[in-house]
Design a protein that fits this description.
Helix content is 40%, strand content 23%. By secondary structure, it is an alpha+beta fold. The strands form 2 sheets. It has a 3-stranded antiparallel sheet. It has a two-stranded antiparallel sheet with strand order 3-4.
Amino acid sequence: RWASLAAIATEVCEENRVMTSGTFREAVMVASRQQGVHVVPEENQKTLTHADRHWAVKIGGKDNHLISAW
């Protein structure tokens, strides 16, 4: 199951005023290196919202919008 990085970031950063967009992106990058965590771009780029584009995390030269862990 995939979750939107924009949805997670909006909720986390609004509730935790200490977490900035930079610290959120760094946390996603660290998490992406863990076994079982996958961060990928949205395949259908036409469906991306402004928030999706804003909260994208660049990994490997690609903007990634979704995260999953299993």
